[in-house]
Write a structure and sequence with these properties.
mainly alpha; Leucine-rich Repeat Variant; 24 helices; elongated
Length: 384
Amino acid sequence: MAVLYALMDSEDNDQIIDTVSSLLENSKSADVRKHAVYMLADVDDPRVLDIMIEVARTDPDPDVRRHAIYAISEYPDDDRVIDTMVAIMKTEKDPDIRRHVLYAIAEVDRPDVTKILVDVAMSDDDEEMQKAATYALSEVDDPEATRALQHVLQTTKSNEVKKAALYALVERDNETIVPTLKQIALGKEPGDEAEELRRAAVYALAEVDDPSVVPVLNEIVKSSDDPEVKKAAFYALAEHGGPAAIESMKTAALDPKNEELAKAAVYGLMEALEGDDASFFLEVYRKSPFEEVRKAALWATLDSNEGASVPSLVEMLKGTSDPDERRTIVWALGESESDDAVAALAEVARTDADRETRRAAVQALGEIGTPVAKKALRDLLGRQ
């Protein structure tokens, strides 16, 4: 390798091309051939493209072929580039290389690139290739690519390709795709695939950088008959944040009729509030009739920036018989050095019906370590 690098310093293109070409034809080491491709790619000489095309077509090692394909894409003005890549895509057996060819094609600034990618997205035998071509369309510098993606979305029979088209459209055109995403999200078609597409549409809305999306998401929460879509909408609302999104999630978190929706709203608020408003999560914990929602609100309260006060934790402890919740509150009390926390923990350690909860209370007292906590531990030992 050192000889090769020294040769590159000579700036003698004839010698470099002759030597590197010989290595590419004769070396049995794929690593040597790959380095030869790297070096040749830096040589400013029209002969390089011919060599790279040959390597991309014929080298036995997929990694060497892949690097040659990237090198070819650096010659966008040569008509042979697209023709070569299309030919490789048709004959190449390695699916990973075929996908790399697609992404390389997308980098070439030519008007026929969009059509090539659409053809693959619509008709390739490999669904992964269809998806890759669809994603690649998001990178094409061609206004027609947006219309091409809408065509793929409307006509493909593959649900996976439809989802890829949604995300690609968001990448290309944030604003004009919103009505389409809304229509899909509020659709009522039965079946797992339709449900997946509705969720994908909502998640795509999370990526739209436009505050006008928030009312759309609120409408989806109110109007959708699909609980999974509603949960996805809360995720998207959390991504957007803002007063309107937060108010919508707070209302749902306190809903006494829909457990899944309320839990999704709590998790969405944890994301959107970024550790603020522990008092609201404490309100949900106190008011919600659903155990899973209460647990989510408990974690949200304890994970908030200000946490829950010791009196609030003691109140929460008295209000639940669930062992998991009680142990969680016990661990939170162990973060405080107040005498009230010690008293509550000592009571749990003496009287709780659950052995693991009693043990957690003893450990929490040890963590506190104040004189009052140590006395409580001695008193507990005296009762043994």
